[in-house]
Write a structure and sequence with these properties.
By secondary structure, this protein is mainly alpha-helical. It is built from 18 helices and no strands.
Length: about 425
């Protein structure tokens, strides 16, 4: 199981990234008391690692560089960079904190660099189902070797495990699927809401895939409609059953109780158990108020580096860990409102373009005779988007987002394996 058997630069990068990620988190945990406080430093270290890993390859192959035919993903990156440049100037004119101003711009420049390089330079022609199997073995090895260092891995690690689990399920490699899902299942009781939603998304996709093998289109539509209304009308009962099954004292047990409380009584802004959800609602209201303040803010938002006075916020994990203090809250949790805050109407354009690309990825996953590797990258993109809906800054700060965007854009996987 030598490292050379991992075909594809991207797969080798991801294995190296996860090892680096574990070590960085271990060091930062020993320095900071609260995990939220070290997130900016963590993201900076990941960017530097990624840049260091790919740049030598980029320089070696620079002479072979050529732009390919423009596709949907290209428009997203081009417009996002253009809007970011406009918002950088807008943010500078508004006097936004320089640290946040440059940090926001660097994320987009870095993402665009990774996207353009992988889309137009690095080949993935050797990526096959066999590559995914070797890749999965290395991921498990990383888990076995490093689990006891800090007991946690990045969200990116679990996105990949969930995607590999799905791939092995549809290829009827059930033992391999169980193999790669073990790390996720070990920590599922303490998963955050967004990661649990990603897990449910993969389960639903597999259900869609299975019934698609046996039922006609009309039958599938009927079953999905019935299932949707069943979940809507009986969601409270299903949560009650889960509440009794899930281990008490676990993070998952707390989140189910929180959901049941909200179903029964609504959101209580004075209840400490509802803080994380209530905080997102407060943020959204503040963003909309700023957005509709005047025509300039409507069009361009608060610009890159824009901040909000946290005096109205109720979540101490947001206000006490802000890098520049509680009066300069930088990140908004909900994705569409985060984009509106930074980009105004331009942010809504970015969001809708991402949604269109998301729908294309849904379609790609369920296409007949589609490559396994192509499905893998489309599913990664979907999971990152789903995860980022309640945790917005993760989207553009994650190298895996830009990588998945570029890998599925290339669409070089013509034949099913």
């Amino acid at each position: 199981m030598g490292f050379k058997k991992i075909h594809g630069v991207v797969f080798k990068y991801l294995i190296s990234l996860f090892v680096f990620d574990i070590l960085v988190v271990f060091i930062l945990n020993s320095i900071f008391e609260k995990a939220f406080a070290y997130i900016p430093y963590y993201r900076l270290s990941i960017i530097l690692f990624t840049f260091t890993f790919f740049t030598p390859i980029f320089l070696i192959k620079l002479q072979k560089f050529k732009f390919r035919k423009v596709k949907n993903e290209d428009y997203i990156v081009i417009l996002w960079f253009l809007f970011a440049f406009i918002e950088f100037i807008h943010g500078a004119l508004l006097g936004n904190p320089k640290l946040y101003l440059f940090a926001d711009f660097i994320y987009i420049i870095f993402g665009g660099y990774i996207y353009i390089m992988l889309s137009n330079l690095i080949s993935s022609s050797k990526s096959t189902k066999g590559s995914l199997v070797n890749f999965a073995k290395w991921l498990i090895l990383v888990f076995v070797l490093f689990y006891f260092i800090n007991g946690s891995f990045s969200e990116n690690y679990y996105f990949i495990l969930l995607s590999l689990g799905y791939i092995f399920l549809i290829k009827k490699k059930y033992w391999f699927s169980a193999f790669v899902l073990i790390p996720f299942l070990i920590q599922i009781k303490d998963s955050n809401r967004a990661l649990l939603i990603c897990f449910v998304t993969v389960v639903i996709f597999y259900f869609i895939y299975k019934i698609g093998l046996y039922l006609k289109k009309q039958d599938r539509i009927f079953i999905f409609t019935f299932l949707f209304f069943f979940l809507v009308f009986f969601s409270q009962e299903l949560l009650s059953i889960l509440f009794e099954i899930v281990p008490k004292g676990s993070g998952l047990h707390f989140r189910i109780k929180q959901a049941l409380d909200i179903f029964n009584k609504g959101i209580d802004f004075n209840n400490p158990q509802h803080i994380s959800i209530a905080q997102r609602i407060v943020e959204a209201k503040v963003v909309v108020s700023l957005w509709l303040n005047n025509i300039v803010s409507f069009l361009f938002g608060c610009g890159l580096g824009g901040v909000i006075d946290g005096k109205l916020f109720i979540d101490p994990s947001v206000t006490t860990t802000a890098l520049m203090g509680s009066k300069s809250i930088h990140n908004i949790h909900l994705l569409p409102f985060a984009l509106i805050h930074k980009y105004g109407l331009l942010g809504l354009i970015i969001f809708f373009m991402l949604v269109i690309d998301l729908l294309n990825s849904f379609r790609n996953i369920f296409k007949k005779n589609q490559s396994i590797v192509f499905i893998f990258w489309n599913l990664i993109f979907i999971l990152i988007f789903v995860y980022s809906l309640p945790a917005a800054s993760f989207l553009w700060a994650s190298p895996l987002f830009w990588i998945s965007l570029s890998m599925k854009r290339k669409a070089i996987y013509k034949k099913p394996f």
